[in-house]
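call fold(seq) -> C-alpha cells
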Amino acid sequence: MKKNTNQSKEKLLTFPCRFPMKVIGIRQDGLAEEVVGIIQNYDPTFSASNVDMKISNKGNYLSLTVLVNATSQEMLDNVYRALTSHRNIKFVL
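ret:
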C-alpha cells in the first residue's frame, strides 16, 4: 500500500513550532541581513538574534543557522523557496 507523502510530512511537525534551517551562501556584505529580511516576509516576529553565523575556513562562504517560527508546512515551503531563489544562497537545509 502506498502512503500519501503529504499526510506523512504533516504528521512529522506540529504547528506552530520553532524550525531550524541552515542557509549557506557566498560570503558577501549584507547577506545575513538579506536572509533576515526574506524570513521576516513570512515570519514578522523573526529577529536577527535568532541567527548563528559561521564563516568557512577559507572565508568564501557564510553559514547561517536560523530558527523560524513556523505556522504551517506551506509557510516553511515558502521560506525555503524564497531563500533558495536568492542569487548568493547555495544551499538551504
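The longest helix spans residues 31-42.
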